[in-house]
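Q: Structure tokens for this one, please.
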Amino acid sequence: MAKGIIDMRFRPPIPEWVEGPTFNTAMWYPRNTSTMLGASSAWEASMDLLFDEMDEAGVTWGVIMGRSASGELGGVGSQAIIDAVETWSDRFVAFLGVDLEDIDRSLSEVRELAGHPGVKGISIEPGSSKTPRLADDPVLDPIYEACLELGLPVSVSLSGLLSALAGHDITWSSPVPIQRLAMRYPDLKIIVSHACWPYSHEMVSIALFCKNIYVSPDLYIATANMPGRQAYVDAANLFIADRTLFGTAYPTRPHVEAVRDFREMGWRPEIVDRILYDNAAKLLGL
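A: Here is the predicted structure, written as tokens:
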């Protein structure tokens, strides 16, 4: 029996996201390209249609990736994410976002909610917050130390597009600070969401050396003809099959199309289930 698929970067059309800038930002590709048309459920903001699309694609779990950073990209409060996880507890788990403009307050809220069974990690987006920061900025250390204390992985979302959409240059998405972070906190499990695209070769080189880094390229390995994708595929085929994760970056990519494109990327057959399900299930305790 098929295990299903875990989507590691997912933002469902709950009102709190649809009514703010976050969902609109995630729809940048569908709004600005002729080949990435977006999911019907996203355009219609329909949860029922979303579940139909997930079922058709074989996606059993969506990991709601929190965004609480202030600035152009907006965000959603942790309680709204908890409410979604509780309402659809058989479909969603979550990473709670930390607002990097108010770390103490935001981290205090996360600590209060971290014991919820649906909470599987903490999410930050340092290169695209109102005040951009590198991933190894010491001001972020309380977040990483809280992850270690709570036994939770951290998702650090970095990509050139994400930084650009927030009004910053793409150097804020460099993976080099991730290497320094991983070496400083060797027991911290670090998921690099968007996988520092377009710095794909640098990202996989760092992941080869740092065993506590998980590479989660999401739409950058789930979109046909995406520049830079082959580096992630080659690296998984050669040496990081157990630390590569699948995601769609929904609503950026429809699930059916993302899974189809992913499967056609040229993976070694024996690692496909690991990337689609096993690695994330082990990491998240699902």
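A few notes: Residues 91 and 203 are 30 Å apart (CA to CA). Residues 5-284 form a domain with the TIM Barrel fold (CATH 3.20.20.140).
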